[in-house]
Amino acid sequence: MKRARLVLADGTVFEGESFGAEGEGIGEIVFNTSLFGYQEILTDPSYKGQIVAMTYTQMGNYGINDEDVESRKPFVEGFIVREYSEVPSSWRSQQTLDAYLKAHNIVGISEIDTRKLTKLLRDKGAQIGIVATGEARNEELAKKAASHPGLVGRDLVRDVSTDKPYEWTEGPWSIEGGYTKGAPTKFHVVAYDFGIKRNILRGLVGAGCRVTVVPASTPAKEVLALKPDGIFLSNGPGDPEPVEYAVENIRELVGTKPMFGICLGHQLLGLALGGKTYKLKFGHHGGNQPVMDLETRKVEITSQNHGFCVDLDSLPAGVKATHVNLNDNTVEGLALPDRKLFSVQYHPEASPGPHDASYLFERFVKMMENERG
Question: Which of 32, 184, 238, 371 falls 20 to 30 Å from 108 in CA-CA distance?
Fold first, then answer.
């Protein structure tokens, strides 16, 4: 195996083995606690600008297939694992993880102490790092990492959003026949693509929605011209505050139609309602985050992927918190009932992760039903 290095901005160096592409990948390093689902994680556009380190030991053991992608391509800047499995074992596998990363020019590193790395990130916070092959000196790589702009203040949504509107018709997956065509459509939903995952779209179709996906910069008047029954605000990468055009459009749309936001869409909605956001120390990334519904007091185990959070104290009167993260008490859901909107910070569509929160798609449909009368 060829050698590879992970060099952090603070000068810390991890030496390991290379898999995937050769070269360099630079970005903010985050750790993900999911036990499986590496293909969905790699293709989640919310990871644009980031290098993902998996805390579970073995990756690549079930290969890659064409069905489990969450977007048009992987968006991670690099991939870090403890142990890479060269020989996949799954009836669905079509190629190895190594071949997939090579095809998309993503540098991977294995055989490093991911436990030590995770503890470092928990203690010091997310850091910029470089996964590199080749002969560059560690000092040069650390200097390059230290000069990288990071995520704060950058609009990464433009890099991942669709260029033009399109209709989405694919429904949820079943083991008998793969992806379905979904239920008969009852409502038309216009979904803003800030970096949308495909399983979100499948969840909307499965709930009985006809879905039109529009670019992140689509003006509010063009969305309303499509005559939607509801408006969906998607997940996406990075800092919400620089995405000012989205905040302005959402502000115009608030109260016009029922609205549902997930992850970055939740943060952008919080900004549109007059709140502020802030960067978390190391973010929430994984499929085992406990969240409490403050109305029912029920706890959901959720899939999450975000590094920023809405500041609840900054929100105006009338906006209420609906969910809270039980690990750190950060806000995980907002609602403004008289304006027909709600949002969650986590991912009810899972992929990967638990399906505890999939009922939220039905809640959105119910809101549209009530609006019709």
Answer: 238
